[in-house]
Design a protein that fits this description.
DNA-binding; transcription; Jelly Rolls; transcription regulation; sequence-specific DNA binding; Arc Repressor Mutant, subunit A; DUF6597; alpha+beta; 271 residues
Length: 271
């Protein structure tokens, strides 16, 4: 099983965190289960037909999947050989690239080939016909650039500012402060944020706080869990563990014991 992380081209670096590639040519591989967690990022997945099929809750997922914000963990299953390309977008990508109200895809996904504006592009068929990973990524980038050009009117500097402030503060910032900086009412701010990001500002800040704690857990840069809790402004260790279970589906201890993280926020369950 091979995993690679590939940076986006410069013209998409404000919209894409990175591409990831997952490949296995072992047809004898039994079903593998992968865990995703709430990470503040929507994404896209292409799975080559005939080379592994992704299932969630025993339901086969479409060939090219566009998915929204996750507010909880999920488990995906795949078996046999597979050849899969994914994208981790930045939080605002569903609105700015595809013109979608991001809250319509929260904890959900759609077949990208059925999306208005993408139907005539036949992206899945194009990607299936290509044999090189590099050519597939180039084709995806061309498609995304065309979508971005079509929907450039949805760019919103106020939402970019709010997202950057939350990121800089690792989620530990008052929503009231953000509203005052942007001179928006509570209702207007929440409505616009949900359209661009998919969740409320408060929930997104909590996910950002959880992700900051995950980073310390990955680096093993702590002596005990309470160190992570206090470093990230949780009230106490119990508060941190409750938040971790909410977004990762398991306790920090169980996560480290039962999962092998392949790339950030995607791990194979080893239990």
């Amino acid at each position: 099983m091979q995993f690679r992380q590939i940076p986006p081209p410069a013209y998409l670096k404000d919209y894409i965190r990175y591409f990831w590639v997952m490949e296995s040519h072992d047809t004898n591989v039994s079903a593998a289960t992968f865990r995703t967690i709430a990470d503040g990022s929507p994404g896209l997945i292409f799975q080559h037909p005939g080379q592994g099929v992704l299932f969630q809750n025993n339901k086969q997922l479409p060939g090219t999947i566009l998915y929204g914000q996750a507010t909880r963990h999920a488990e995906l299953r795949i078996s046999g050989s597979f050849n899969t390309i994914g994208i981790f977008f930045y939080p605002h990508a569903l609105k700015t690239i595809f013109g979608l109200n991001a809250n319509e895809l929260t904890d959900s996904c759609l077949d990208l080939d059925l999306l208005s504006g993408a139907k005539d592009y036949h992206l899945s068929a194009q990607l299936t016909d290509l044999t090189s990973c590099g050519d597939r990524i180039d084709t995806i980038c061309s498609f995304l650039l065309a979508q971005l050009t079509r929907h450039d009117q949805y760019a919103d500097k106020a939402m970019y500012h709010a997202l950057e402030r939350i990121r800089e503060a690792n989620g530990n910032i008052s929503v009231k402060i953000l509203r005052e900086e942007l001179q928006l009412s509570e209702r207007s701010f929440e409505r616009k944020f949900k359209q661009h990001v998919g969740v409320t500002p408060k929930l997104f800040a909590r996910i950002a706080q959880f992700q900051a704690s995950m980073q310390l857990l990955r680096q093993r840069d702590y002596n005990k869990l309470s160190d992570i809790a206090f470093e990230n402004d949780y009230a106490d260790q119990s508060h941190f563990i409750r938040a971790f279970k909410e977004f990762a589906g398991t306790s920090p201890f169980q996560f480290r014991k039962q999962s092998e993280e392949l790339i950030d926020n995607l791990s194979i369950i080893t239990k």
